[in-house]
Design goal:
The chain has one domain: Aldolase class I (TIM Barrel, Alpha-Beta Barrel). It has eleven helices and twelve strands. Strands 1, 2, 3, 4, 5, 8, 9, 10, 11 and 12 form a ten-stranded mixed β-sheet that branches. It has a two-stranded antiparallel ribbon with strand order 6-7.
Length: 332
């Protein structure tokens, strides 16, 4: 800081632009908007189902008949997109419910597009919710077989696109999954369907509540053999670069809050739209602390989402989307 040699007073008066909320908002460098948010939804069969998820306060598993009301609420809040996860009634070793024409996600896509054709419906492409063993691909000799899994992922993506999904989001972390899905979409009549790749998806402990919500915990072992090792950052850039080369239209870093450094490095290096997934554990921590009176939930939530955007995210997938949109519409 510069100091006047005569008076000893500071020359740089940074506080001038911090005195009032109007001034702070005028010069704010990072601005958060509901238009950048994507809201995840967990869909189950049945009628009138709204199963609260204990580890994710405010979140529920929803049956198909509940989706039109969700679509209407999201439209009113200015949230443009959802990310769908399905919980099938039955599971098998091949995860066949993921690519069934009448699968739970395929039905959910149709229900949402009928309720609101302008809602952007993104579908998660993975097998973990649909397999009896809970892993993201075909298991052979106790390990997930990368190349045997690719045809099932392509069938899943194509069936979701044919059901009306606006975008598919492969998350299984199989090598070559983006290229295989791009080829399947192009050859299967869906060349205009974009791919949002879970490019840098870490084997994170922050996924715990999600596995309860999606009923997708592995029945043996873990996913560290195919999801990324948390200490690695340079590898994340290689993963992202590979997915771009394979045809990804959007790339993602997951989780978001614990990997802001990776997000920032990806923003500096790549020009594609960049998504960040503010995952279940990150959400649950804020909810638990707020419930105990340890944090101001509104301020902390908006601070976290702003940090994710400041690090470089163009798109933020978050369970906070609804409440954040309400808060942004009525800033204090």
């Amino acid at each position: 800081m510069s100091v006047d040699p005569q008076s000893g007073s500071p020359v740089d008066r940074f506080r001038r632009l911090r005195r009032t909320e109007a001034l702070r908002r005028l010069v704010r460098e990072t601005r958060l908007s509901p238009e950048e948010l994507v809201y995840p939804l967990f869909v189950v069969g049945g009628q009138g189902v709204r199963n609260a998820i204990p580890s994710m306060p405010g979140q529920s598993q929803l049956s198909l008949d509940q989706l039109p009301a969700e679509a209407a609420e999201l439209r009113a809040l200015g949230i443009p997109a959802v990310l769908l996860f399905g919980i099938p009634s039955t599971k098998d070793e091949q995860g066949s419910g993921a690519y069934a024409a009448d699968g739970i996600v395929q039905q959910a896509v149709r229900a949402l597009k009928q309720a609101d054709p302008d809602l952007l419906v993104i579908t998660d492409v993975c097998l973990c919710e649909y397999t009896s063993h809970g892993h993201c691909g075909v298991v052979k000799d106790g390990e997930v077989d990368n190349d045997a899994t690719l045809p099932l992922l392509t069938r899943t993506a194509l069936s979701q696109a044919q059901a009306g999904a606006d975008m598919v989001a492969p998350s299984a972390m199989m090598d070559g999954q983006v290229a295989a899905i791009r080829q399947a979409l192009d050859e299967g009549g869906s060349p205009h369907t974009p791919i949002m790749a879970y490019a840098a998806k870490y084997a994170s402990a922050f996924y715990g509540p999600f596995r309860e919500a999606a009923e997708s915990a592995p029945q043996f072992g873990d996913r560290r053999g195919y999801q990324m090792d948390p200490p690695n950052a340079r590898e994340a850039l290689r993963e992202i670069e590979a997915d771009i080369a394979e045809g990804a239209d959007i790339v993602m870093v997951k989780p978001a809050l614990a990997y802001l450094d990776v997000l920032a490095r990806a923003r500096e290096r790549f020009d594609l739209p960049l998504a960040a997934y503010n995952v279940s554990g990150e959400y649950a921590m804020i909810k638990a602390a707020a419930a105990n009176g340890w944090l101001d939930e509104r301020r902390v939530t908006l601070e976290v989402l702003t940090a994710i955007k400041r690090a470089g995210a163009d798109i933020i997938i978050t369970y906070h989307a609804k409440e954040a949109a309400r808060w942004l519409q009525s800033p204090s």
